[in-house]
Write a structure and sequence with these properties.
Number of helices: 7
Radius of gyration: 16 Å
Distance between the termini: 29 Å
Strand order of the largest sheet: 1-4-3-2-5-6-8-7
Largest sheet: 8 strands, mixed
Oligomer: single chain
Number of strands: 8
């Protein structure tokens, strides 16, 4: 069951060019995986941050640029966003970013336990209708999977602008016995998470932003 909406979008010439030129060097097609996958194989063997749903890639590029000692693996299904991130990677010389296309949970299932330094799930689809809540990425079975791929001491950082989903996230993360709530509730806005256009629109619309940071025991 998909936790995301496949979206169609119009590619700009810049995005198309970046995708065509840079995908062979920086891209990973999740559907083409056949067997186990170690994210360290894509980079330098540095600690890996998994970005689930990188959108247009602005936040991922900014965080990776400010955090050169870790490698970032961004997962996205929206082709214009992938092309945009690849263009940012080239423009800013980000050797610590790789981009995967497809279902992030399928990718995580192929990973060995304890291989990730952090997992970021920023502004996932809230699936607001009650009958669609089973599609939410932050639910017990998925959290257990994500947590198992974190090293001991690794962090799972979630953010949403949907208040009801924020409370559901908090309850789900707190219920996992192998996760520790770093801030004892909603976290202060972390300085390392850039404000994206999506977040600015949410703030302009009067929606509060909720961050949750949990650490694997």
């Amino acid at each position: 069951m998909r936790t995301f909406h496949p979206r169609r979008g119009r590619m700009t010439g810049r995005q198309t060019d970046a995708l065509q030129r840079l995908w062979p060097a920086y891209g990973l097609d999740i559907a083409a995986l056949d067997g186990p996958f170690d994210p360290a194989s894509l980079g330098r063997g540095a600690p890996v941050v998994l970005e689930i749903g990188s959108g247009m890639g602005d936040a991922t590029a900014a965080m990776a640029g400010a955090d050169p000692d870790r490698d970032y693996l961004a997962v996205e299904v929206h082709t214009p966003g992938i092309g945009n991130l690849l263009e940012l990677v080239e423009r800013h010389g980000l050797g610590n970013v790789r981009v995967a296309r497809g279902d992030a949970l399928e990718l995580v299932r192929a990973m060995p336990e304890g291989c990730l330094d952090a997992v970021h799930v920023f502004f996932p689809d809230p699936w607001p209708k009650a009958r669609h809540h089973k599609r939410r990425i932050i639910q017990p079975v998925h959290v257990a999977l994500l947590r198992s791929r974190l090293r001991p001491g690794g962090t799972l950082h979630c953010a949403t602008d949907w208040a009801e989903y924020a409370e559901a996230m908090r309850a789900t993360l707190t219920a996992d016995p192998e996760l520790v709530d770093v801030h004892g509730g909603f976290a202060p806005r972390p300085a390392h998470r850039p404000v994206t256009k999506f977040e600015r629109r949410a703030l302009t619309a009067g929606r509060e932003i909720f961050d949750l940071v949990h650490r694997r025991r």
